[in-house]
Specification:
Radius of gyration: 22 Å
Strand content: under 5%
Order of helices and strands: EEHHHHHH
Number of strands: 2
Helix content: 40-55%
Number of helices: 6
Shape: elongated
Structural class: mainly alpha
Strand order of the largest sheet: 1-2
């Protein structure tokens, strides 16, 4: 329908329209191989990836993400009947990208944050944070990744934002 040369009428244009004698519009490009039911993009603010927070420069963070994806591809999760650790169908809003999973884990372990403070900083539910920590911990252990300890224990999201040089107040 989107390719048809339609001119909607003023009154109920979705029902009343004129089909113009023109060729069809070009076909849209095919969806990317990553296209799926759930979004694959990052949900967390970009400032949370700051090297002073994660302890990793961007290239090292990207390398860790590549190694994490490769390990997960070689060791897919086992689903028990009736149990789906990824939330199952309809869990699209709760799914996190690999980058977001790593950010949550790195912030939690590096800064000894409580899940409540991390939830405040990321706008994620504490239950989603807990599930992410359980999912990421064995993979990073298997990869032998050591997380550098931060100098402080973060007790508020504002402290975390200050370290990254981010102003958390809306404009």
């Amino acid at each position: 329908m989107e390719r048809l040369p339609l001119t909607p009428h003023e009154w109920h244009g979705t029902w009343n329209y004129t089909l113009r004698p023109e060729p069809l519009a070009p076909e849209p490009p095919p969806p990317s191989p990553e296209f799926g039911r759930f979004p694959t993009g990052d949900k967390l603010p970009a400032w949370l990836r700051h090297p002073s927070l994660t302890g990793l420069e961007p290239a090292a963070f990207d390398d860790l993400a590549v190694r994490y994806r490769a390990w997960r591809a070689e060791h897919p999760p086992i689903f028990l009947p009736g149990k789906r650790p990824d939330g199952g169908p309809g869990a699209g809003g709760r799914r996190l990208s690999v980058s977001d999973q790593l950010v949550v884990f790195l912030l939690k372990k590096r800064w000894s944050m409580t899940n409540a403070v991390l939830a405040e900083a990321t706008s994620l539910a504490k239950s989603r944070i807990g599930a992410t920590l359980q999912e990421v911990a064995p993979v990073l252990t298997a990869l032998g990744h050591k997380i550098p300890a931060g100098a402080l224990t973060m007790t508020t999201a504002q402290q975390l934002a200050a370290i990254a040089g981010h102003d958390p107040t809306p404009p």
